[in-house]
Amino acid sequence: MAGSSRYTAVLDANVLYPALLRDVLLSLAHADLYSAKWTVHIREEWMRSLLKDKPAMRAQIAAAAATMEDAIPDCLVTGYEHLIEGLALPDPDDRHVLAAAIAGHADAIVTWNEKDFPDEMLDPFGIELQTPDEFVVNQLMLKGHVALAAIKAMRERWERPQYTAVALVDLLEKRGLPQTAAHLRDVADLI
Predict the structure, then answer these.
(1) Within 13 Å of residue 109, how many CA atoms lie on the same side as its CB?
(2) First vs last C-alpha separation in the chain
């Protein structure tokens, strides 16, 4: 897999599991703000977790995964498996994420699991960890108009239920993105 000249982030399963966060992150990627990456293993992990919580939604979850991969060309990292055994992380089950980041030439891993990816394990590979809140705020700060337009388009796509800009900001805050919500609250008329 060739490297990307755009900022590249591997999205961990725990940030793809919640529909709202998944939609925000992929809307920003679809707007070409960054290159979003994951693996079949990461896809299976978030789908398995979601199916455990919502078994009746099997068809919708499979459709969401297929739509994600159609919408984000070149999202799947391959050829990372041989790196897994040589990596050390506090949770050995997370080594596949770091291996994918290395093979996918990622600049960052976006995850809620900060303790599982210590800086001293990522620094040698030039990879940083960002929480979803930090990552989204960074996109808003770097290319605000493009990011705001992507979030507005996302909100306008939602039909059931529809959300006002203020309601979306409140929902983002409730879902663990307080910095993002604070930033968007100041520009709600643009989303």
Answers:
(1) 32
(2) 36
Kindly report, residue by residue over 27-76, the tens digit of the pLDDT: 999 999 999 999 999 999 999 998 898 888 889 989 999 999 999 989 99
CA-based R_g, the chain, Å:
16
Residue with tokens 């391959």: 78
Domain that holds residue 144: 137-190
Q: What token pair was written down for 98?
A: 């770091």
In terms of domains, do 84 and 167 share one? no
The predicted model scores a pTM of 0.91
The CA distance from 19 to 161, in Å, is: 13
Give the number of other CB atoms < 10 A from CB of residue 191: 21
Question: In whole angstroms, what is the distance from residue 76 CA to residue 27 CA?
Answer: 17
Residue 84 Rama label (left phi>0; alpha psi -120 to 50; beta): alpha
Residue 2 lies in a domain: no
